């Protein structure tokens, strides 16, 4: 069931459109969770309460694993979680009591229960004897708060266009007499009569509560209606249709309409005026007996329809004297409180329920509307919300568009058999918490001064007392006898002679004189009484005026203080604006500097990365070049070494030949080798000789006589030593050249 609080006026000027201002403050949808106890102790539990706002779902042991091979434990957060030991009173205090306060102050609200069949939705809303639910407790608080200020029956009258009219006292009296005269219409019980035993002990006197902030200068009237939505059709559960036992007719469905304020309502719905909690209970029970229930596999008596119990509160201010209701239709305020008990959200395969009576389509539409609302608010899109796809969402669309508070109670059955359905319910609740609803506006303040009812009641109590003090009606028998004796005495009335014509005229004259005196005394008494009344009233008015003067002085002082505070507030607002502008400038400079710093950091990072890439590239090139030149030098050294070895081998061969020539002294000629080569500079600044060839020097000598030979025999060794020195010099120079080539 669900509470709706709607604020509307009778014949209020038409609003420009249903769109709200973009700067309207919004509040998220309040989602609460209630866990019901397990049916038996041997049932497996899959829900655990972690904290006052968090629950955790455990996969049952016998459930098949998912693709990953296991079910993970999931946690869900709510505005508040009510455990299995939570009483109905505690739930009412946290969830429904603020909505009843808003109802009395002409604000909208919505409260509905959601969950699978058997999770405790109907118990949460309706309750049981000794444990009244949200519906009876809300009605009890409402009538406890406005009981002394209720208007007489038929003073307020619905205009069949979701508005309210005010009837004068005569028309209201005629309506009451007409209702009392109709014997066929049974009277609803008053608060003094015996209540229905179904609701007699729902709420104890210790748990009764009331609102303290009720406007005493207003008169209130309560109207209730009860409908159900079944297979996307709306039926009136309070409609008194004639019953034909031979050919019973099915109930006629109702249609939805839009009033002048763009609020949706059920056209032709029966609205019953009630004056007490017991009377409202009886009306509710009358419609409850017509609800469609069915025997499903999950619950023996399962609600297969959505029920909406609406409490409409009409209120209007009293006139300046505080006696009667102000006859101004523009001052009539109407608010609504609706209790909606949604049907079970489980799948048809589990309920084994007939497809033509399946109501899950409306719940799917509700989920879709919530998803679109969340997407529009979070992503800034402007998608059309499909309210019209279901009667439930179409009827409630004003509340999601900003016509009041929205509250949802998610009822959970911890039985492991409902694990999959419970997980779907948790996902829907988690998504619903992200939807925001515009905050309702306060009602306009009445222009009449406050305290009118109290002043009128004080005057009624004070006037008789003042009249008694200053002399009221004469009720003393002694004073009455004295007054009678002061009148002229009656003459003898006995008539003896039929021709007597003096006795009767004399009696008539005396009686006429007594009548004139009586009239004069009556007029004098009336004048005296009127004067006394005027004096008492003037005295009372003078006292009230003096009190009013004191109040006006207090008001003037408060106005002066208010003006001072307003000036101070304006000064502070001006300073706040300056600080905000300065803060905005600083924030802008900060953002620009941060952007510049980020840009420079990015540029530095790019340069560092480019430098690292260049270093790696240069290191690679140096390494490749070094390897290349090392291989080239090694190749050249090997080639040069081989070449020098070949040349050295050639030199050795020539040296061997030279030695052979020198040793052959018998030939008469000496062959000398003269090396030829090129001279080049070394790295150290010196010079080196590169030999290219050996010149063979031949020295011939003539054959001399033995005398000359003897004389020349001394020169032979000298020449041989010189040749050996030259050969040795050549040999050393060859190795020196090889050394220079290898290391330079």
Characterize the structure shown:
It is a single chain. The strands form eight sheets. Strands 1, 3, 7, 8, 13, 14, 15, 18, 21, 22 and 23 form an eleven-stranded mixed sheet that branches. The protein has a three-stranded antiparallel sheet with strand order 4-5-6, with helices on one face. It is elongated. Helices cover 45% and strands 18% of the residues. Helix 1 packs across helix 3 and helix 10 (452-470) runs antiparallel to helix 12. The chain contains 14 helices and 26 strands. A hairpin with a 2-residue loop joins strand 13 and strand 14 (233-236). It is of the alpha+beta class and 744 residues long. The longest helix has 161 residues, at 503-663. The protein starts with 7 loop residues before the first strand and ends with a helix. The protein has helices at 88-104, 121-125, 134-146, 169-181, 277-288, 348-351, 360-379, 391-400, 419-432, 452-470, 477-485, 503-663, 706-713, 715-743, and strands at 8-9, 26-28, 30-35, 47-51, 54-57, 74-77, 80-82, 109-114, 127-128, 131-132, 156-158, 164-166, 218-230, 233-236, 253-254, 256-258, 264-266, 272-274, 293-294, 302-303, 306-317, 333-341, 405-412, 436-438, 669-681, 687-700.
């Amino acid at each position: 069931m669900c509470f709706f609080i709607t604020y509307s006026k009778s014949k209020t000027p038409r609003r420009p459109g249903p769109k709200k201002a973009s700067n309207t403050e919004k509040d998220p949808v309040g989602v609460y969770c209630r866990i019901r106890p397990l049916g038996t102790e041997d049932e497996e539990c899959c829900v655990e309460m972690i904290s006052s706002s968090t629950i955790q779902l455990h996969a049952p042991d016998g459930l098949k694993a998912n693709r990953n091979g296991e079910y993970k434990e999931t946690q869900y957060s709510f505005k508040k979680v009510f455990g299995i030991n939570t009483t109905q009173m505690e739930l009412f205090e946290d969830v429904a009591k603020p909505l009843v306060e808003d109802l009395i102050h002409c604000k909208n609200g919505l409260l509905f229960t959601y969950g699978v069949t058997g999770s405790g939705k109907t118990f949460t809303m309706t309750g049981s004897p000794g444990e009244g639910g949200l519906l009876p407790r809300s009605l009890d608080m409402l009538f406890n708060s406005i009981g002394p200020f209720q208007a007489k029956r038929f003073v307020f009258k619905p205009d069949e266009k979701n508005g309210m009219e005010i009837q004068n006292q005569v028309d209201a009296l005629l309506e009451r007499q007409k209702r009392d005269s109709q014997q066929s219409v049974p009277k609803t019980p008053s608060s003094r009569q015996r209540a229905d035993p179904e609701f007699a002990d729902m709420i104890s006197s210790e748990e009764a509560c009331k609102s303290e902030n009720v406007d005493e200068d207003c008169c209130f009237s309560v109207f209730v209606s009860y409908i159900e939505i079944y297979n996307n059709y709306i039926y009136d559960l309070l409609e008194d249709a004639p019953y034909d036992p031979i050919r019973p007719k099915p109930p006629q469905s109702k249609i939805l309409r839009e009033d002048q304020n763009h609020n949706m309502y059920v056209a032709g719905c029966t609205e019953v005026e009630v004056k007490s909690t017991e009377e409202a209970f009886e009306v509710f029970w009358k419609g409850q007996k017509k609800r469609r229930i069915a025997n499903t596999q999950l619950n023996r008596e399962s609600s297969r329809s959505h029920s909406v119990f609406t409490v409409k509160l009409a209120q209007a201010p009293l006139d300046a004297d505080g006696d009667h209701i102000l006859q101004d239709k523009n001052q009539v305020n109407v608010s609504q409180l609706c209790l909606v008990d949604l049907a079970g959200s489980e799948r048809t395969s589990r309920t084994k329920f007939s497809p033509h009576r399946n109501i899950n389509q409306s719940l799917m539409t509700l989920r879709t509307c919530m998803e679109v609302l969340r997407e529009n608010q979070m992503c800034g899109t402007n998608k059309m919300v499909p309210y019209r796809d279901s009667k439930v969402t179409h009827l409630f669309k004003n509340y999601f568009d900003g016509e009041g508070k929205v509250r949802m109670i998610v009822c959970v059955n911890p039985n492991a058999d409902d694990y999959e359905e419970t997980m779907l319910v948790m996902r829907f609740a988690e998504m619903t918490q992200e939807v925001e609803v515009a905050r309702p506006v306060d009602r306009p303040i009445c222009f009449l001064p406050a305290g009118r009812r109290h002043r009128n009641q004080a005057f009624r109590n004070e006037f008789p007392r003042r009249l008694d003090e200053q002399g009221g009606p004469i009720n003393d028998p002694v004073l009455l006898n004295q007054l009678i004796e002061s009148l002229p005495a009656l003459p003898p009335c006995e008539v003896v002679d039929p021709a007597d014509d003096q006795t009767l005229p004399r009696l008539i004259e005396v009686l006429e004189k007594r009548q004139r005196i009586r009239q004069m005394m009556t007029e004098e008494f009336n004048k005296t009484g009127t004067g006394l009344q005027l004096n008492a009233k003037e005295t009372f008015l003078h006292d009230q005026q003096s009190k009013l003067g004191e109040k006006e002085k207090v008001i003037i002082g408060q106005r002066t203080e208010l003006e001072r505070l307003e000036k101070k507030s304006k000064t502070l607002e001006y300073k706040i604006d300056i600080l905000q502008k300065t803060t905005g400038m600083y924030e802008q400079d900060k953002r620009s500097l941060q952007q510049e710093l980020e840009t420079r950091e990015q540029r530095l990072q790019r340069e560092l990365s480019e430098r690292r890439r260049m270093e790696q590239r240069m290191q690679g090139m140096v390494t490749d070049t070094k390897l290349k030149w090392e291989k080239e030098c090694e190749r050249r050294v090997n080639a040069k070494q081989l070449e020098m070895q070949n040349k050295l081998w050639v030199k050795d061969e020539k040296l061997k030949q030279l030695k052979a020539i020198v040793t052959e002294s018998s030939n008469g000629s000496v062959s000398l080798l003269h090396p030829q080569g090129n001279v080049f500079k070394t790295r150290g600044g010196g010079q080196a000789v590169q030999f290219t060839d050996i010149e063979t020097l031949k020295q011939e000598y003539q054959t001399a006589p033995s005398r000359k030979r003897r004389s020349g025999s001394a020169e032979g060794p000298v020449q041989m030593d010189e040749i050996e020195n030259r050969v040795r010099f050549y040999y050393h120079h060859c190795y020196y050249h090889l050394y220079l080539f290898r290391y330079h």
